[in-house]
Structures are given as C-alpha cells and as structure tokens.
Design a protein that fits this description.
254 residues, mainly alpha, 3-stranded antiparallel sheet, 10 helices, 3 strands
Length: 254
C-alpha cells in the first residue's frame, strides 16, 4: 500500500522417500510398495503448486488488479478516485468505512499494480490450494479481503488523524505472504511458532521497516511513501488467520 501526498499530486509504489539403489540380485518383483493411506490419494502438497498453475481464483485476482487500474486511469485523472475512495484514516475515525474496501481496488501506478499482482499470484497459489474446491473460492476471497481490511485498520490505529489517502492491495497481499510462511517446504501448515516460520516473519518485518524508512527519506522527491505499517499488519493477520480458515474451508481428501 502507498500513501498519497495530495499536495504533490502523485503516488509512490505501496509491495517420497529416497530409495537406495536395489541390490544387484534383487528384482522388481521382489520389491514391496506400500499403498498410499486410504483417503489420501488426492492430498495436495502446497509445495507442488507452481504459480504458473495457479487456481483460477488466484489468477482472477491477479488479473483484476491491472484491469481495475486501467479503468481508474482511463478518465485521465487517476488521482481523483484515490481522493474519493482511498483509505483516509481521519474519515474512518469519523465513521466512513468505505475506504477500507475501496483502497484495495485502487493503485498508484502501473509499477504498483504489477508488484501486487505478481505477489498475489506467487503467494496466493499455495494458500488457495488449502481450501476445498467447492467452498474454497469463498474461503480464499474472504481470507484475502479480511487481511486487507484488518491491515487498513492497523494503519488507521497508528495514524488516526492522517488525511493522506492510502491505496493498494499490498496489505491483503501481505496477508497471503504471512499465510505462506506457514506453508513453505511443508505438506501442511507449520505451527505458528515454528522456528522457520518466525524467521521468515522476522525477515519480512525487517524488510518492510527498511523499505518504509527508505521511502520516507525519498518522500520529498517521489511524492509518496510506502505504508509499511499496513504491510506488517497484513503479514501478522495472515499468519494468525490461515489456521482457522484452513480448518473451516479444509480441502476434502479422498
């Protein structure tokens, strides 16, 4: 997500087993192969879900971002919709909640759109494959939306008086990243406090703080700054909520 400095009128970018060789005197007929456990034949390993073979909800999500920005910029004034529908913390504090949704549908430029679309595609695939094919669309979309809304609320809580519009789907995308920290290299969700999970969470947090500081230093030149607080809020929300969502919308086995 990115913050818009309205007085400058421009945006910055927001973010099986290993078998030993058979002995020479053994024959294939002598080898016993254990059948897969009953009901697990169709189990999906999230590690085997390449981004270029993503489920259709993830593809649709990624494609919707440039499509929506094309409509946003088509009128010749991409800043106008930002002023109207962007997330302005002061408005939220006054009871106007529309920006919590509207901000996720808007972006600050093609580079901003591209980063979020690629992020959604790369990190959304494994998350979507956790869910059942019939109810999984609802699970994936609601997970994504809740991550984005709570990321926005996290930003509002830190900057309640700000009048600067916030736009971009980065908070929701970082929710997918937070969920993915519990999936990388595993067949199922890792425990929340697994050492590898925590190390990835720390890496993403430090990276966002560094980008945020760099963006703030360049704000006077580029006209905007990265809303790293919303990114971290989304990251934490995804890390926390992927477990409950995976249980509610669990993929059916067998």
């Amino acid at each position: 997500m990115a913050r818009l400095f309205s007085h400058l009128g421009c945006m910055s970018r927001q973010p099986g087993p290993w078998d030993l060789p058979a002995e020479p005197d053994s024959t294939p007929a002598e080898e016993a192969v254990a059948p897969p456990p009953a009901g697990r034949e169709s189990a999906v390993d999230p590690r085997d879900a390449p981004a270029f073979n993503a489920p259709w909800p993830v593809l649709l999500l990624a494609l919707s971002m440039p499509a929506l920005y094309w409509f946003q910029a088509r009128g010749g004034d991409p800043i106008g919709p930002i002023q109207t529908w962007g997330l302005v913390p002061a408005r939220v504090m006054q009871g106007d909640w529309t920006g919590l949704i509207g901000a996720m549908l808007l972006h600050g430029g093609w580079a901003h759109v591209a980063m979020n679309a690629v992020g959604a595609l790369a990190f959304g695939t494994a998350v979507a494959r956790l869910f059942d094919r019939r109810t999984g669309v609802l699970g994936f979309v609601s997970f994504y939306a809740i991550c984005g809304i709570l990321a926005g609320l996290g930003y509002v809580a830190l900057h309640p008086a700000s009048q600067i519009p916030l736009v971009g789907a980065s908070g929701a995308v970082f929710g997918l990243i937070g969920a993915s920290t519990r999936l990388v290299g595993r067949r199922s969700l890792a425990p929340m406090f697994d050492r590898r999970v925590l190390s990835q969470m720390m890496m993403w947090t430090v990276l966002n703080v560094a980008i945020g500081l760099a963006g703030s230093l360049m704000a006077g030149v580029a006209g905007g700054a990265v809303a790293w607080e919303a990114h971290i809020a989304g990251l934490i929300v995804g890390w926390l909520l992927v477990g409950p969502f995976a249980r509610i919308f669990a993929a059916r086995r067998g």
